[in-house]
Write a structure and sequence with these properties.
Strand order of the largest sheet of chain B: 6-7-8-3-9-10
Largest sheet of chain B: 6 strands, mixed
Strand order of the largest sheet of chain A: 1-2
Chains: A mainly alpha (about 550), B alpha/beta (about 230), C alpha/beta (about 350)
Order of helices and strands of chain B: EEEHEEEHHHEHEHEE
Largest sheet of chain A: 2 strands, parallel
Distance between the termini of chain B: 22 Å
Number of helices of chain A: 23
Oligomer: heterotrimer
Shape of chain A: globular
Radius of gyration of chain A: 25 Å
Structural class of chain A: mainly alpha
Order of helices and strands of chain A: HHEHHHHHHHHHEHHHHHHHHHHHH
Helix content of chain B: 25-40%
Strand content of chain B: 25-35%
Helix content of chain A: over 70%
Radius of gyration of chain B: 17 Å
Strand content of chain A: under 5%
């Protein structure tokens, strides 16, 4: 089972066209970031004063607290549930092991908004509590407000834990059982074996999941704003909008990019260390049946995140939508149009992002003359994920519209064709979500042994042909997983859409936001529900793709 | 340090949709202290299951397993593996990839203080001829070296019994022969009671004092080896 | 480990996606061939302006393309530059409107109709901006509170400790109020006021104006500051809906400024400008003139529960009953716009939203 430290170098896989395209994509992703830098420092640092003194420290502190809190919560929930579900058998495990992914379909702002209603003093939860305790009015008894840092940590933690759960579970599922058995023959109890062997081995996977969840937290604007937590992202937004200070906003955004770079490094590092090998006859951990009280306790513990992160908000949306429909709405024509637009936008973004991801990942594996340059491009391509949607949109506006104008002049078209057709919006979203297909396809390519490509070339096939006939079919799981993730995220996207959309174009998210801005939450619930429903299918498919169709059944080994 | 092992009429079985599948039935075995026995047979004959039952990873349906007068398993009781003082060497080496060789060997020595741990680790590494390899990680060691570290690790807590589950089958021929002889030497020198499980005849003869030939869950006959 | 999807499914799905996207792009990219057109960029929620737009299209046969830009209207129009298709820029809050003018994306309009309908203090002297409707920032109070009159400055009074709800201090509606306070009372007093109100907050300054009513009903606070039109919306909502419950829980008082002898209430506006590079300038002016006409102003009052800028247009009865005839604080809106940056800096300094 000797692990070779170095893979033999891949053949000169990517020709100049690929590398040029990859470079163009990398530049495309960097352009908004560079524009941001230019915006930030171009107008001088004169107005940094009040920003530094009053806004930045508090926002930075809030962000740090939020990241720490959410990070802890997602690690606990994600790792704990992943271990429970992998190594044990208990009632409901068959359903729970994939249900734990469901919160991925819930955008953070929708969950925040649902819980604000659910946990409001005049909402159902507190109403029930008051009834049980015998109080009549909220003025006699009420729980602390959700609009606080702990509230935000709670909401974000229970919605973002699936990132850690996914990677942890994939890791635990493939850990060889005999490692844990060896630990037990050396005197460790089951708990000891988990903490001293299983957990340390899973650390790289946990790092990947954690960094993804924290990047999402950093980007979130809806939930933080709604719950009154002024993070750096919120500060960027308000500095731009309410203080009308684009340069200041860009400056805070640049500061955020440092945190982002750290998180992206954490994730990359984690992926690199996932090399503890798999030999041919690896027997995975056999789930141990939990009996009686322990079994039901495990069911309760693993069901709780699903209930909090998905079921409760979803039921709330269904209830509110039903109320609205029964009270004599009907679904407006605009809402249906939004649904169509949302799906079309998400589809367009997915196609562009996956294609671009393939180009970048393919070019990056060329070891030829400049391996570092290619890898740098791949890393640059992932930067978009880290930049908050609004900020990316601002950064993209200037170069994109300049390009648009030039194009229109060249062809003699009227107005701004790319903008009007929504191309600029698609590009912005694709930049935002490029990291997922790039990462997934890179990982998929790494799993394909070089010998396969060498065999294909020796049988007379060209590089491009090998890509088409050999790599692409083998990459299908990676591509499919990347595409699904992009699709789900594109459907939920809000800030960039608000800024860059063409005339008379609403997505479900913008529809919902407009309704919420007007304060008519009941109607917004229908749009929110549609977002969640549409986002469910990719999540379910992802669950089956990533986790296998059925959990391992607890059957004892025989000789 | 080495103890007599007694298996009395043990039965190992598991439930299938089609009913109870018995792997091993009315199986008995006695091993004197310091003996090295081998269970030999084709795959599917139940030898690994017996080994795993002694280690504590399989429950008994009937019979008793006693080690040095302590009941490890019976139809009604089951001592967890970590309390059995039984060491094991696996076919797939099972070295912890995230720990160095020295830390691997020290893994089961938590009850000792630091100085005693270090001394024991050094002693075991020297015993298997890898005194300078302590700081290396498993992926930096060859297959043969990994198995030696695995042996050192299993012997470090002074187990009452050592189980070897086809430990040499992943190695190439020359290494396998050398290692087999070396390991037997180490075990004999230490007076360690051990049971080896293998389907390789040469290995069985080289390692063990007695070979129990198994077929369909039973020992058909015992062979005394020349060694 | 990873299960493979059916070998052909992703390929088929990809083909379908590509096909759908191409079709969609083809359709939306086609240049529109309408007869008379107008492009409106607005930050107002579509449902609020839709009745007005439909009435305009019906009367004038001009098709209106509406782009709702929640934030960054100025950014977007500036970036679009000379090729921008925007004809009319519509927004709320005098500060935002002035930002458009100062950002150089508007053009002057001379129109007797506009000038006669809109009082001089509610439009730009050179016709760069026009107010179309007004909203007052009023006090919502729990019905049990014994309040008949109120001054904005009273909000900082310690007797209201833990009883005040308000939305984020940085929200334009609030910074405009703070700017008005600076204009009336001076910056030092305004800062003191902010600190006093922050100490009185019952919960974080966040959410929307309607949340003030909801939280009053929920017992979180007793009084709060919010816009007048929500009162109309809530109190006229269907019986049994949440909005109706919130509306029925409050009463409204028109606050005044302590130092102002005139005793007027702070107002803000919704307004519009004609875009600098408007391709359809004539149509743009037609829209503005329509919006200040009697029928349109009546719609503002009835459908949106706002205060019309045109004199003589009847208020919605609920507004008339609950809030009453509005006495507008005579402070020129341009003064408010002037102090807005300071107001915003003060909110930061006090850490009002933290």
């Amino acid at each position: 089972m000797q692990m070779t430290r170095r893979q033999p170098p891949a053949l000169q896989a990517a020709g100049p066209v690929w590398r040029l395209a990859s470079l163009a994509i990398a530049i495309g992703v960097l352009a908004p970031v560079l524009t941001l830098l230019w915006l930030a420092f171009g107008t001088g640092v004169g107005h940094w004063g009040p920003l530094f003194a009053h806004v930045l420290p508090q926002a930075a502190l809030n962000t740090a607290l939020l990241l720490a809190g959410v990070g802890t919560l997602v690690l606990l929930i994600g790792t704990g549930c992943a271990w429970l579900v992998t190594a044990h058998d208990f009632p409901g495990r068959g359903m729970l092991h994939w249900a734990l992914l469901l919160p991925l379909a819930m955008p953070t702002y929708i969950v925040a908004f649902a819980y604000l209603d659910l946990l409001h003093p005049i909402g159902p939860v507190q109403g029930a509590i008051r009834w049980m305790l015998g109080f009549d009015s909220p003025r006699q008894f009420r729980l602390p407000d959700l609009r606080s840092m702990p509230g935000a940590i709670f909401v974000l933690g229970f919605v973002l834990y699936p990132y850690v759960y996914m990677t942890a579970r994939a890791m635990f599922m493939t850990q060889p059982a005999h490692l844990l058995e060896a630990a037990r023959t050396l005197g460790e109890s089951r708990r000891g074996a988990f903490f001293r062997v299983a957990l340390p081995l899973a650390r790289p996977a946990l790092a990947v999941g954690l960094s993804l969840a924290l990047l999402e937290t950093l980007n979130d604007i809806g939930a933080s704003e709604f719950l009154g937590v002024n993070t750096l992202t919120v500060a960027v937004y308000t500095t731009w909008i309410t203080r009308s200070d684009l340069a200041g906003a860009a400056q805070i955004a640049c500061a955020m990019l440092f945190v982002v770079v750290a998180l992206v490094w954490l994730e990359r590092n984690g992926r690199r260390h996932q090399r503890f090998g798999s030999s041919q006859r690896m027997r995975a951990v056999q789930p141990r049946r939990l009996h009686g009280g322990a079994g039901w306790a495990a069911t309760a513990v693993t069901a709780l995140p699903v209930l909090i992160g998905f079921v409760a908000p979803a039921l709330y949306l269904v209830w509110e939508s039903a109320k609205r429909l029964l009270q004599g709405g009907g679904v407006s024509h605009g809402l249906i149009a939004s649904l169509g637009n949302t799906i079309a936008l998400a589809a367009g973004v997915t196609v562009v992002a996956v294609a671009a991801g393939l180009i970048v990942a393919w070019a990056a594996r060329s070891q030829g003359t400049s391996p570092n340059r290619a890898r740098w491009q791949a890393r640059a391509a992932t930067l978009g994920y880290a930049v908050p949607g609004t900020v990316l949109a601002i950064g993209l506006l200037t170069p994109a519209l300049a390009f648009d104008a030039a194009l229109a002049t060249a062809f003699g078209w009227q107005g701004l064709p790319l903008m009007s057709a929504g191309i600029v919006l698609i590009v912005a979203c694709a930049i935002r979500f490029l990291a997922m297909p790039v990462g997934g396809i890179e990982a998929g390519l790494a799993r394909i042994p070089p010998a396969i490509e060498q065999a294909s070339r020796l049988l007379g096939e060209t590089t491009a042909g090998t890509l088409r006939r050999v790599h692409l079919p083998l990459l299908q799981p990676a591509i499919a997983a990347g595409a699904l993730l992009v699709f789900v995220d594109a459907m939920k996207e809000l800030p960039a859409t608000l800024l860059l959309r063409p005339a008379n174009f609403d997505t479900l998210a913008t529809w919902l936001y407009a309704e919420a801005a007007r304060g008519t939450y009941e109607e917004g619930a229908i749009a929110a529900l549609a977002i969640v429903l549409a986002g469910l299918l990719p999540v379910v498919l992802l669950a089956r793709n990533q986790l296998g169709t059925a959990p391992v059944a607890p059957v004892p080994e025989h000789a | 340090m080495s103890s007599p092992l007694h298996l009395e009429s043990i039965q190992l079985a598991y439930d299938t949709p089609r009913g109870l599948h018995t792997v091993v039935d009315d199986f008995s075995l006695s091993l004197a202290a310091g003996d090295i026995a081998c269970l030999f047979g084709p795959s599917g004959c139940g030898k690994t299951t017996v080994l795993r039952a002694i280690a504590g990873f399989e429950p008994l349906r009937a019979g008793t397993i006693r080690l040095d007068e302590v009941v490890l398993s019976s139809a009604r009781s089951h001592l967890p593996p970590e309390q059995r003082r039984v060491g094991m060497m696996f076919q797939e080496y099972a070295l912890f990839p995230h720990l160095s060789a020295a830390k691997n060997v020290a893994f089961g020595l938590r009850r000792l203080d630091r100085a005693a741990q270090q001394a024991r680790v050094a002693e075991m590494l020297a015993l298997v001829g890898l005194a300078e390899a302590g700081e290396r990680y498993p992926h930096e060691l060859s297959g043969g070296q990994q198995q030696r570290i695995a042996l050192a690790r299993a012997l470090a807590p002074s187990p009452a019994l050592l189980l070897l589950d086809e430990p040499f089958s992943n190695l190439d021929g020359g290494t396998r022969e050398r290692l087999t002889a070396e390991v037997r030497g180490i075990l004999k020198q230490a007076g360690q009671t051990a049971i080896l499980v293998t389907h390789n005849e040469a290995e069985a003869h080289a390692m063990a004092d007695r070979i129990g030939v198994m077929h369909n869950g039973r020992i058909t006959h015992w062979l005394d080896t020349a060694a | 480990m990873t299960q493979r999807l059916g070998a052909r499914t992703p390929a088929r799905a990809a083909h379908a996606l590509i096909g759908a996207t191409t079709a969609w792009l083809a359709i939306t990219a086609l240049p529109a061939h309408a007869a008379e057109e107008l492009t409106l960029y607005t930050t107002r929620e579509p449902a609020l302006i839709q009745p007005l737009i439909s009435a305009f299209s019906a009367q004038s046969n001009i098709k209106v393309n509406t782009v709702f830009v929640k934030d960054g209207l100025l950014e977007r129009v500036k970036a679009e530059g000379a090729r921008s298709p925007a004809d009319v820029l519509m927004t709320v809050d005098i500060g935002n409107l002035m930002d458009l003018v100062d950002g150089g994306v508007t053009q002057p309009v001379k129109s007797p109709a506009l000038e006669s309908a809109i009082p001089a203090n509610l439009r730009g002297a050179d016709g760069q901006w026009f107010a179309l409707s007004m909203r007052a920032r009023v006090l919502y109070a729990d019905k049990a509170q014994p309040l008949t009159s109120f001054r904005y400055e009273d909000l900082a009074n310690p007797k209201y400790k833990g009883k005040v709800c308000i939305r984020a201090g940085q929200h334009p509606y609030n910074t405009a109020l703070v700017a008005a306070l600076i204009a009336h009372d001076g910056e030092a007093k305004a800062e003191q006021w902010l600190r006093g109100v922050k100490a009185n907050l019952a919960r974080k300054a966040t959410g929307g104006d309607r949340d003030v009513a909801r939280d009053i009903l929920g017992g979180i606070c007793d009084i709060g500051i919010a816009n007048s039109y929500y009162v109309g919306q809530m109190k006229s909502a269907k019986e049994g809906t949440d909005a109706r419950k919130w509306g029925d829980a409050i009463k409204v008082v028109r606050p005044t400024f302590a130092n102002a002898k005139s005793g007027g209430t702070h107002v803000n506006i919704s307004g519009a400008s004609v875009a600098k590079n408007a391709p359809q300038r004539a149509n743009a002016v037609k829209l503005l003139e329509f919006l200040v006409s009697e029928p349109a102003q009546a719609l503002y009052a009835q459908a949106n529960y706002e205060y019309p800028v045109r004199k003589g247009v009847a208020l919605d009865p609920i507004i008339g009953q609950t809030i009453g005839e509005l006495k507008v604080d005579p402070l020129p809106l341009t003064e408010i716009a002037k102090y807005r940056k300071q107001a915003s800096a003060l909110v930061d300094k006090v850490g009002f939203d933290q």
